Amino acid sequence: MALKNVVGVDHAVVMVKDLDKAAENYRQLGFTVSPRGTHSAHMGTGNYTIMFDPDYMELLGVLAPTEHNAPARAFLEKRGEGIERIAFTAVDSSAGAEEIRARGLTPIGPTDFERPVTLPNGTVSAAKFRTFMWPTEEAPGGVRIFACQHKTRETVWIPELMTHANGAKRIQQVLIATPEPAKEAAHLSRLIDREPKTEADGAVAVPSGGDRADFVYLTLDQLGGRYPGVPLAGLSERGGAALVLASSDLAETEKALGSAGVRSGSAICVPPARANGTLLAFIAG
C-alpha cells in the first residue's frame, strides 16, 4: 500500500557553502530567486527558493551550527555542495510519520518551523511548515528524504517568483548517481511503497507519486551517457545528483544560460561546477 499522507516530490534541497553567492549564481543562470529566508533558531539555516509548479528548488546554507543541521554540515564537509536531500509533499506530517512508524521506521519529527517572508506588496508574513524525516541512515543513493507539509502555501508559491528567464517550469526527474542502481532503487521503493522500473540503459526509476518527478538511480557512466559532452567533475560516484527541468522554451533557456549552458542532444545542461554541485538538464516540456 502506497503511503496515504506523502504524495510525490515537493522540492530538492541544494546544500551550499555560501548562501548569498549561490543565490547570485542561480540568478545569473536565469532563475528568479526569492528573497532570503531565515529558519527558526533550532534549525540554524537560511534559504533561497526557486519556485516552479508544483515543485521547487531550495538553496540551503548553515548560518549557525545546531544539532538539527549536523547532517547537513557533515554532507558539506564530506561531499561539498550539491543535492543533499529531497522533500516529498506531506498532506499531514503527523499522520505520515505514524505511517512510516507502522512500517518499522522511527521518524525524526514531526517538527514545526517557520521563516519570515516579505511579500511583493512589501508586507511581512510567515511561511509555516511541519516536516518529518525518515531515519538519517535511510538515504537511498546517499540522498536523504523527508516530507514537508505546507501550512501557508500562499507565502511560498508567490506568482511573481514563479516565472524564470530560462523557461524552467518544473522538476521532471531527480537523477541520483550510484554504483548499484537496482539496490538503491529497491531501497527507496521500500521506503515509499512505489514499484521500481528498469529503463533501457540499465538505470532504475522509482515514481514519487501523483504527477510529480520520478527518481532515477544510475551509475556515473550511465549519467554521462545520457548527457554526452557535459563535464561531470564534482559529482560524487554515490550521491551525486542532477535535476531534469522542463522548460517552456529551450531557445530562451539557451539565451539565459549563456556560456554556462552546454547543448547535449535534445537537452541544454549546466555542469555541476557551474551550478553549486548539481547537474541541471533542461528539456522541452
Automatic annotation (TrEMBL):
Residue stretches making up the VOC domain: 8-150
Coiled-coil positions: none
Annotated Pfam families: Glyoxalase_3 (PF13468)
Transmembrane domains' residue ranges: none
PROSITE patterns: VOC
Gene3D superfamilies: 2,3-Dihydroxybiphenyl 1,2-Dioxygenase, domain 1
InterPro entries cross-referenced by the UniProt entry: Glyas_Bleomycin-R_OHBP_Dase, Glyoxalase-like_dom, VOC_core
Protein name: VOC domain-containing protein
Species, as recorded: Bradyrhizobium centrolobii
